[in-house]
């Protein structure tokens, strides 16, 4: 997840204010319970409630979730909601279906990780 830290500095919600993003489920075989996102926050979960998130494969540095999130965040002007939809689609494909990332959000503004010119 350290690789993700640099991406947040370039994000914008279109109002000049910050957006808080939290990630849950970083260790394999960790179960979690759903939380509601506080105001102007998005909580991103590696998988659905009661499910197990896959760890990175042999020789891979990142889990499927982290790998696909890093890729999706590189797209210019991509709304955060679309970033997480793409992550969900690609993680599902890579894990053959059992891992489905979830989000809980209370965002009201537009946010992108990379703003184009």
Tags for this model:
117 residues; alpha+beta; Rossmann fold; three-stranded mixed sheet; 3 helices; disordered N terminus
Structure in words:
It is a single chain. With 117 residues, this protein is an alpha+beta fold. The chain has one domain (2-26, 35-105): 3-Layer(aba) Sandwich (Rossmann fold). 24% of the residues lie in helices and 12% in strands. The protein contains three helices and three strands. It has helices spanning 5-8, 64-72, 80-94; strands at 20-24, 41-45, 102-105.
Concise summary:
With 117 residues, the protein is of the alpha+beta class.
What's the story with the biggest beta sheet?
3 strands, mixed
Number of domains: 1
Secondary-structure-derived class: alpha+beta
> How many β strands by DSSP?
3
Produce the secondary structure layout:
Layout: H1 5-8, E1 20-24, E2 41-45, H2 64-72, H3 80-94, E3 102-105
Parallel strand pairs: 1-2
Antiparallel strand pairs: 2-3
């Amino acid at each position: 997840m350290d690789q993700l830290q640099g991406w947040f500095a370039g994000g914008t919600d279109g109002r000049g204010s910050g957006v808080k993003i939290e990630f849950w489920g970083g260790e394999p075989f960790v179960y979690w319970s759903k939380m509601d996102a506080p105001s102007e926050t998005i909580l991103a979960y590696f998988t659905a409630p009661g499910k197990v998130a896959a760890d990175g494969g042999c020789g891979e540095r990142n889990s499927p979730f982290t790998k696909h999130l890093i890729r999706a965040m590189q797209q210019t002007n991509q709304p955060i909601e679309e970033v997480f939809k793409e992550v969900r689609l690609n993680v599902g494909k890579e894990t053959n279906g059992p891992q489905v990332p979830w989000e809980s959000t209370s965002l009201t503004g537009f946010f992108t990780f990379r703003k184009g010119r």
